[in-house]
Amino acid sequence: MKCKICGNKAVIKLRAHNIALCEKDYIAFFEKRVLKTIRKYRMFDKDHKILVAVSGGKDSLSIWELLLSRGFNAVGLYIDLGIENYSEDSKSKCINFAKDKNAELEIANVKEYFNGLSIPEIARYVRRKTCSVCGLIKRYIMNRRALEGGYDVLVTGHNLDDEVSTLFGNMIHWQVEYLARQFPVLEKNHDKMVKKVKPFVTSTEREVAAYALMKGIDYMEKECPFSIGATSLFYKRLLNELEEKQPGSKLRFLNGFYENSGIFQTFRKELKLRACERCGYPTTETVCSFCRLRERIGNIVEKSEDRL
Ligand code: AMP
Ligand code: FES
Ligand code: ZN
């Protein structure tokens, strides 16, 4: 197998693009496609102050690496979730990466907002699924830290497989309102809401993993213990089976959806955002779900302290 560009020995074959490449040409090919996606969806440019949410996994460290190596002004943000045997290791990966690249890393800690409780403890207290509590808290902290730090845009590492499995799930359940909002760019539509972008939406998980490997990124391989059995992983397996039979179908499915997303816009409900009475960040209600969660936790902790 020879590299299509230089004729040297190829190290990766991309059936979706009908191309085999050597390491050097793969890195160039991969970066060029991501930069094209950034330009196509007008995500950001070199004048912007970028905050990259990094989990320590291959996707977010790879996008940070790509942006740094291409001269973008990109600072990392790690959110410590307090998940045993997982958060400490993933935090170390982010700290080591930042040190190695001489890059700036901000660290936020969930415990600072929730009376010293970790994500699994909060979920247990309020009897909700860990991942849904975690998602709500991460989204809030990312947005808030981005605004407090004066950043123009927040980048996450969501890849093509993540987006296609979300799309598939939204279609299976005909979540038309979610379909009307699914896009690689979420514009700022409130003065306390930062623009959010996903530059890896056109890169598969395999392509990102190959890039991380070739770039020598030391990332966290362990998955979050609460993701075991997640429906999104089941969808990803189904979609990989489809991809195996019909290379390129994941990319065609997602690109076709973006091109035709106008179809779903009739279902878009304009959310009336206002400032949360407690924290001032946007919400559709009087008090935002983050502050309500904080209050519930505060009450529970107070009650249990009374009992001591
Ligand atoms: P996930 O929701 O775990 O699939 O992660 C999606 C994206 O959210 C990642 O690619 C990161 O950009 C970001 N992210 C996830 N966990 C964290 C974390 N603990 N701290 C900062 N960013 C995170
Ligand atoms: Fe939040 Fe797994 S990363 S529960
Ligand atoms: Zn609030």
CATH topology of the largest domain: Rossmann fold
- The secondary-structure class comes to alpha/beta
Question: What is the assembly state of the chains in this entry?
Answer: single chain
User: How many beta-strand segments?
Assistant: 10
The helix count comes to 12
Q: Which residues sit in consecutive blocks of at least 5 with pLDDT less than 50?
A: none
Strand order across the largest sheet: 5-4-3-6-8-7
Shape label: globular
| Main sheet properties | 6 strands, mixed
Helix content: 40-55%
Any idea how many domains?
Answer: 2
From the coordinates shown, what is the CATH architecture of the largest domain?
3-Layer(aba) Sandwich
- The residue-averaged pLDDT reads 96
Looking at CATH, the homologous superfamily of the largest domain is HUPs
Quick one: CATH class of the largest domain? Alpha Beta
* Strand residues, percent: 5-15%
What does this structure look like?
By secondary structure, the chain is an alpha/beta fold. It folds into two domains: 233 residues, Rossmann fold, CATH 3.40.50; 38 residues, no CATH class. It is built from twelve helices and ten strands. The longest helix is centred in the middle third of the chain and has 19 residues. It is globular and about 75 Å long. The model has no long low-confidence stretch (mean pLDDT 96). The structure holds adenosine monophosphate, FE2/S2 (inorganic) cluster and zinc ion. Adenosine monophosphate binds next to helix 2 and strand 4.
Features of this protein?
six-stranded mixed beta sheet; binds adenosine monophosphate; binds zinc ion; two-stranded antiparallel ribbon; 12 helices; alpha/beta; 308 residues; binds FE2/S2 (inorganic) cluster; 49% helix; 2 domains; Rossmann fold
